[in-house]
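Aim 2 progress update. The chain analyzed this quarter is reproduced below.
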Amino acid sequence: MYSEVLHDRNGDLHAFYLGGPGGGLPRGVAAANVYGFAPMTVREYSNFMRIGRTQAAAERAARGIVPPPVAPPADPAAPAGAGAARAAAAAAGQLWVLGESIGQKKIGDIVDVPAGAPSLGDVALVQMVDSDGQTRVVTAFRVSADEVAQFCEDRVQQLRSCEACEGIDRIVADDIRTLAVKYGANGERRRGFKETVDEMTTTEMSDFPFEPRTCLPYLQAVQSIAESNFAQHLAWVQQSKIPEGSRAVYEDEALAQILDVAICYDCLCVSNLASFELLVRRRGIVVPALTEHVARKLHADAQIMKQKRKIEESKGRGKSGKPSKPAPKGAAEGALSALRAPVSGYSEPENGVGSVVNMDLSQMSLPDGQVAGVSLLDGLQGEVHSVVHNFEDFMLQDADTFMTLSDEISKVPPYNDPLLASRSGYINFLKHLFQCGVLSHTSTCRGRVGAFCVAKKPKVINNVLQNRQRLVLDCRQTNLSFRDPPMTELGSLAALGQMTLDPEDTLYMASADICDCFYAANLPPGLCSFFCFKSDVTAAEADFISGGVWEVSDGQRICPCISVLPMGFSWSCFLIQCLHDQATMRALQVDRSALVLDGQPPPSLGERDCIAMPYIDNVHSMSTNRARCQDGCDLICEELKSLGFDLHEETPASTQLSTLGGFIDGVKGEVRATSQRMWRVSIAFSYIAHAVVSPKLVQKLMGHAMTICIMNRCGMCIFRKLYDFIEKGETRRLSSSERDEALNFVGFIPLLYSDLRLPWSDTLTCTDASPEGYGICESSCAVQEAKNLGEWCERWRFKTAKLGKWRDCSEHITIKEGRALVLALRRSARVLTRNVAILPLCQKPTSRVIPKKEVIVHKKTQRSLSRASLVTTEKNVAKKATLKRLLPSEWPVSAVKKRACRSIQGVKKDITLDEDSVGTRAQTQRMTVLEQKSISKECRGQYAQYLEKFKAFCRESAVQWPLSTEEADLVMADYMDVMFIEKRAAHEGEKTLAAYEFQFMKHKGLMVRSRRALRGWRKITPATSRLPLPQIIMAGIAMEMVAANLKSMAVMTMIAFHMYLRPGEALELCKRHIVPPVRMAGNQFAWVNIIIRDQIGQKPDKVGVYDNSLPFDVKEHQWIGQQALSLAKALKSPNDRLFTFTMEEFRKTFTRLGAKLGVMNLHPYQLRHGGATQDLTSHVRDFNGVKSRGRWKTDSSVRRYAKVGRVQQLLNQLPDSSRSFCLWSHKNLEKVCTGRCPPRTVSA
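Predicted structure tokens:
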């Protein structure tokens, strides 16, 4: 701060210029010659002013200039002494400043408070003129000169927290869309990315269009790994090894730069902007909040929820919701990223093994083609055999679930190796599979799979180390068509570690490996059609592939398919394990208890000659006798060879065995991880204890640590802080507590093994706790009894049901508790003395005996209590309760005699069943009430009509009713031919087939020929949709309706057009469906809303949704909402309909008036299509807005209905006079409907 003499005597100043109007540049001064400074805050401005005043006072003193004292003007209205007080305040350095903004004046500007101005303490009222020349009264405050800056900040903060009691905008707050502008040291506007992300918040908005909000979590994730979005983009390009020139690189770069510029330069709070929410999602990022949101939306149907989660995983999103980059076409790592293949602890980790590699047919590990193969159906027995034999009934998804997921399944394209992109590479691949004996063909393709290869462990063949590849099929699309397989119980080292070895015994083990286990098992007939490769082949190509072996007729479709169990099929592991388990039990002549498997107690070696531990393609036999161990292994191998398997790597019986990623020592009786694995894990945890690490790296190491801890689960209690580190997601050095956990685990690794010789204690301990305290009990028992109890793991109750009463799952636990209470009452009635008080003590009782005059029965225990017929009665409340036996006929009326559905928001109780029919209707071949309610009453009536016509055709064809499945399929196919020849529409065939399958569920999915005939019908006469109705033609028809004194029809026409309503939805509008606006509750509530298909009416819309709310949110259409509101106000009952005419009357009038305008054969449904097309062409709404307003489930529906380019077809049909009339009607329709202009007709 320095002083400058502003006078022409100052040689440093060349000239003086007066400022331009409005604070602009002076005339004759170029903008390049003017210095610009960044805006300063109020605090900075006040600080500069204070320093300037001090500097000016010092300059005046140096020049000998004494400032004259400034006396405040006299205030005649002020009390005595007021002038002295003002003078004293001025002398004390206090100023009067503005408390609000007016014109060019800002808060904190110094003002002159005239004498006589009203004041109260340090607050005064002053008259000032604003920028419009209007005189206003403003508030002035008296503050100290040093406190002006703080006063301004406090005043602004007070204004921000203000709230009004009325009006639309009642809250004053910061703009949630922007951040404060900041400048760097060089004067450039710039914000730091990381600091800005820390300042961002997510403001809750009730009408935010995209939920959940993922923008801020995504930016925080980027912030933790990079300096900006662009830096993260560069790291992704380098790490993902995406091919150069890929369009994904340029698109992601543009999106990253948009985000950086918006945050760092534009200073936008992008976490509160819907446009950037879409942009972030476009980058392919999925945060946990988004996954949880989808799960909550799908919780109503557990099966569909699980399948849709699988679909999301198939698209590259796992259960954790963490993003994975989309697989670029041709990239080797792409397939593994898309499939999210987990890294297994089955064997020692080696570089390259398990990674996706380019397919090389010479390195592919497949059968040699000389082995006949294993028949899956012949090898399996019992229930599993029935499941595979009848896979259509047990393995495939039910029809309803499949139909729900069909659209999503089609969005999961299989991944194929780049070699298969060329036709020659694809044909050579198929020929190689045929030569290996794993390829077949079918004429019916029911599913497509992709093919790629992963690296296998190299193998020495003829003293040469040769690389090998494992063929993997991408069966994601097919897997979604199948149910989840049962839990696969595998042999494992963790299960083996629970076994007990006597001190005097030695454990011997022998092993073998099944060659190409999955590709040696042949699929049953019909199942191959679900595993067809990418495309069909011609007859010539089929002849080349099979060498003329395949016999193909002319015109036959040839779909190459895998003929063996594919690696990638969700049921493959379960089926092979069952095959292995059953073969082992047959060979050793033992039951399942002799197998070492997860989820069951380990077998006892002392009671059996030999036990086994089957694991997919690994054979293990164990015994305390070397010869019996070897004999057992030989028997298992012979049984597997008899099935058709080929075995190799057979290891003779010994006391040491390395298998399944671990080491078994039969002499010491120990099961531990291999030394190589333990050293690698130890070194890795020692490294992370002192280095900067990411949560992802620590998470992977924790997974490797668990492969060691399963040998001795005590090691799992070491970790706590490292799990918190992974959850926080921050890349940094470990804290002291986290580092201690890592180093402690390194020290404990040598101790983490299973000791088979560890004896059992004869002391049992039981603990429990409650809010009042805790307790510990001890008892002694026989060692064998403790062993029998301890071998059952408590956590198995969540996965299996093999311990005692766990197997009985026929009734809910609530009903079982009711039965226990009934048994206690029965015993009390027989044993205890009458006329005494009874105190039953129950844990979590579901029903209680309450002394009242009527019977009180818990709903879930009704049947149990009714069978026992025990109730409480009481003649006097003062007397104690007694027990009495009543016959069922003597139950009071209050003891529920019938089951009725509960009322839901006023829904009538229209479902009542007799007690004797509950739970038996489906079993007695009758349709349950809920099944009947699965379709609407109108649809049931249509089904009955179509079914009656089909019955008449059966009578004419001399076919006896009811029909068998085969007869029904043949007769239905013939009936469709007859309907086609009679020129009926294809939808009649669809409805007839649907009606028959609805009435006879056992035939659903088996009408193969009928379905094929229906597809042919659709190909000959493809489905068509109506043209959209242009808005001006709609206006012309509405004008004609008003001229004909049919104003209510005109209002319905306009509502159906602008709301995209189906004709039936518009006609059924009632008074309760028209919701008036709430003027002072915000802009989102300022429109007239129409509720479509509310839950009170018990009738959902076409896609099964209730309570759709559609606002008149376009300014030009708000008057239509007012017209609907006027019609609603004239009605008395909320259930009265707005429109009293019938659908037939409206349709005829609509068609007639359309013909009058020159447009023939109009249908009211064209109003729905026309509104969507109008909003798209006029850009009133975008594609997603039209889809949401029209309640279409898929994009294809919107594209089919909203035909933007075909509007002109109907406009071209209009004569010139009709076109002029429609244009006038569109312009004046509001005036006519509101009575400001008389209506016209086209003839006028």
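The chain has a mean pLDDT of 78. The longest strand covers residues 450-461. These observations will guide the mutagenesis experiments scheduled for the next reporting period.
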